[in-house]
């Protein structure tokens, strides 16, 4: 019988989503279906969104968050994110219902048996801002069928989820270019 695993990628450093996407890429290249559900992300301009068309339906990203009004210009490289913070503030407003919608999608994608991997990207932020309930996430990851791995990403992952995981990794910043005033670059960091 094929087992399923729970992976947690957390920590204060850069690389959590990147690591999860590396795992997704490996699975897709082996012909397995992967779905990424991005909690509180809706900018529509990150580089990973460009990759979905290349894999013939095996790789899907579903965003649940506030869309950036400059997304088209940022996507094209004509504009950089101004760090206005509108997306972060709007994402945290419970009235938008972004996190519960993402969670409903997660239940569908984790339990339908169609995916080899389901990545719940930045789920810890939705938990930290109390937009979804930790007990519901515990129930979800315990409901995954054999053969479906689940990857949870985000800073400050609750200890209960770390303890349930078969693999937990912490990404810690040793050195980061932003500390030296070097901003994120289109095509590299987003």
Provide keyphrases for this structure.
alpha/beta, 190 residues, 6 strands, 8 helices, single chain
Walk me through this protein's architecture.
The protein has 190 residues and is an alpha/beta fold. The protein has helices at 16-29, 48-51, 71-76, 86-91, 98-111, 123-128, 134-142, 159-164; strands spanning 6-10, 34-39, 59-64, 117-121, 149-153, 167-170. It has eight helices and six strands, in the order βαβαβαααβααβαβ. It has a six-stranded parallel beta sheet, with helices on both faces. The longest helix has 14 residues, at 16-29.
Report the radius of gyration as a whole number of Å: 16 Å
Strand numbers in spatial order across the main sheet? 3-2-4-5-1-6
The end-to-end span amounts to: 39 Å
SSE topology string: EHEHEHHHEHHEHE
Question: Low-confidence parts, pLDDT < 50 over ≥5 residues?
Answer: none
What's the structural blueprint in terms of helices and strands?
Elements: E1 6-10, H1 16-29, E2 34-39, H2 48-51, E3 59-64, H3 71-76, H4 86-91, H5 98-111, E4 117-121, H6 123-128, H7 134-142, E5 149-153, H8 159-164, E6 167-170
Parallel strand pairs: 1-5, 1-6, 2-3, 2-4, 4-5
Brief description of this entry?
The chain is α/β, with parallel strands linked by helices and 190 residues long. 34% of the residues lie in helices and 16% in strands. The N and C termini lie far apart (39 Å).
């Amino acid at each position: 019988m094929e087992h399923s695993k729970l992976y947690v990628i957390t920590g204060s450093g850069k690389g959590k989503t990147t690591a999860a996407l590396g795992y997704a890429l490996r699975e897709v290249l082996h012909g397995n279906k992967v779905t990424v559900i991005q909690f509180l992300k809706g900018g529509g301009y990150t580089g990973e969104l460009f990759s979905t068309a290349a894999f013939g339906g095996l790789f899907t990203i579903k965003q649940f968050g506030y869309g950036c009004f400059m997304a088209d210009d940022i996507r094209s490289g004509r504009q950089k994110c101004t760090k206005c913070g509108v997306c972060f503030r709007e994402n945290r407003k419970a009235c938008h219902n972004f996190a519960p919608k993402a969670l409903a999608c997660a239940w569908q994608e984790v339990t339908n048996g169609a995916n080899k991997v389901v990545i719940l990207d930045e789920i810890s932020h939705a938990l930290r801002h109390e937009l979804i309930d930790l007990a519901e996430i515990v129930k979800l990851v315990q409901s995954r069928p054999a053969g479906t791995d689940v990857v949870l990403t985000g800073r400050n992952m609750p200890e209960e989820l770390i303890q349930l995981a078969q693999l937990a990794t912490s990404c810690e910043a040793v050195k980061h270019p932003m500390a030296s005033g070097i901003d994120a670059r289109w095509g590299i960091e987003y």
